[in-house]
Amino acid sequence: MNRLNVLVLGSDCHPTRVSIPYVTYSHVAALAQINNVTLAALPHVENDLRRAGAPFRAIEVVRMQSALQGVKDSLVRRVRPDSQIKTAFGYPFAMAFEWQAWRQLRHRIAAREFDVVLRVLPMSAVVPSPFARFLRNGPIPFVIGPLNGGLPWPKGFSQIEKTKTWIAGFRDLHQFMPFGRSTYRYAAAIIAASSQTCSEFAAYRDKLFFIPEPGIDRSVCFDDSRSPHAAGPLELIFVGGLVPWKACDLALRGAAPLLRNGLARFTVVGDGQERRCLQELTESLRIEHAVRFTGWLKHPEVFSHLRSADVFVFPSLKENGGGVVFQALASGTVPVVVDFGGPGDIVHADVGYKVPLTNESDIVSRIEGTLKELAGNRDLLGRLRRQGMAYARERLTWDAKAQMTTQVLNWVVGRAPKPTLSFPSAETLLETAQTN
What we know:
The protein folds into 2 domains: about 5-215 and about 395-435, Rossmann fold (3-Layer(aba) Sandwich); about 220-395, Rossmann fold (3-Layer(aba) Sandwich). Helix content is about 45%, strand content about 15%. It is α/β, with parallel strands linked by helices. Helix 2 (about 45-50) links the parallel strand 2 (about 35-40) and strand 3 (about 60).
């Protein structure tokens, strides 16, 4: 099949920055390997995009008015990339970017230089797109996604009460903003990155596709070098920011019986405001001798730790994506996660364990039971490890994501039948909707 000519709206895609800018860049760069991609982006990322060397057909720099661009750049520097506050206050800049992109490119669109427009940024479903309305009568289709975000704040957890933001209560107002409804009505396809987002757009199920985000580079999918019947303590690991909603305290409490008895060791990779409290928790649980805090590490060091670990204990209570779960699976570390948000979408019974989102004491008890089972059954641990690594290679790489996205794009332009992609079950969608 011929390569598609794709115009990608990716204002802040970036090859080295963390979180969403890197995720979207990786996705678009993989798309450019199998399609002719023109990437529309802002001036402040142009040089880094060109230096990265992805095989884009072209990089179209969209220059907004200098005053507006200055405010936008300041926001990028000062606000965490995945924060809800940035999403809310970034709305006018997203609208301005797309309006200017339309002015620069509409004649080339009209001339059918492109087959399809794909918007990858912002990833948030609450930020609409004027392009959907601009292209409602053609000449080419508009696709949006993968979309993520909007995960509800679970109730009854002390970790969540510490961190819930005031702005979360205003999220539903997005549908009343300009283009809030026309975006999804006129989009030829909507790509959702989570079951939560799928539940929000269930009314558009005939054009809704599920492609979990983020992804991993194929280069990190190594063969397993562990001994198949390694003796000794179970090697446990947590990787992530030491902030309340990541709930590293639940992981430590669940692992405490094994750690006290010398049946396991625990490595905590990451840093943050909760580090001192977590260190004090290890002392109160009498497990400080079996727990090591490494602080932040560079990516190669993180992967080295993951490839040496047996179980990735990650009971995060509000995780939209869960890229670290992808990394654990690719490294052969069996994940134990809370069945909520991104980790719950990614992990299944053939590769790891999902603990129900119930309450703190129950989650701790279930983690404890799971770790005891794995410590006593190394054959099961090895089977889950091998299946997880195969799953990561086949379904979770950026190459795999690009192939799935291209299937959707070929469908909307009429080149191929509608693809059958993994989709959350009706029960999952119902449960997620009821959580809201």
